[in-house]
Design a protein that fits this description.
Strand order of the largest sheet: 6-13-12-8-9
Structural class: mainly beta
Radius of gyration: 22 Å
Strand content: over 45%
Largest sheet: 5 strands, mixed
Order of helices and strands: EEEEEEEEEEEEE
Helix content: under 10%
Shape: elongated
Number of helices: 0
């Protein structure tokens, strides 16, 4: 079942801004209803409008895979993401971790053993429903 959010606008006052807090790539469906200032009767109803969250991605600069339950994994969080790929490299360009699922994060292990503390390079690619692509590289520090 679709959830349709009606937005009431007055013809003489212009558009009112609105926001929503949906957290996935599912479109938010809006229907705009225009009402006259003079007699409050409905003047116009729009078709359904599908709006998607803008593509946003965030990655931490450090994590501590020490099993204390705080910042034990490294990976992205974001909004409006449909496709995603994260790759983590050591200083020689060897792939230590790769994931195509936002929920699958790096636990600081390589071939079953903890990596040495230090800085590692990552590459992330993401694509949104409507709002383009992100390609980002950076460093993450593995802490004690």
């Amino acid at each position: 079942m679709k959830t349709i959010i009606p937005i009431l606008l007055t013809l003489l006052s212009g558009l009112h801004s609105f926001t929503t807090l949906a957290q996935d790539a599912t479109p938010i469906i809006y229907r705009i209803v225009a009402v006259s200032d003079a007699d409050s009767t409905v003047q116009s109803i729009s078709n359904d409008i599908n709006l998607y969250l803008p593509l946003k991605i965030y990655l931490p600069t450090a994590f501590s895979p020490n099993g204390d339950g705080l910042n034990d994994t490294f990976g992205a969080v974001g909004e409006g993401i449909d496709n995603y790929k994260l790759t983590v490299y050591n200083r020689w360009g060897e792939i230590l971790f790769s994931s195509q699922q936002l929920a699958h994060k790096w636990d600081g292990l390589y071939k079953g053993a903890p990596v040495p503390f230090g800085t590692y390079t990552y590459e992330v690619q993401a694509r949104g429903s409507e709002f383009g692509k992100i390609y980002k590289t950076g460093n993450v520090t593995v802490l004690n």
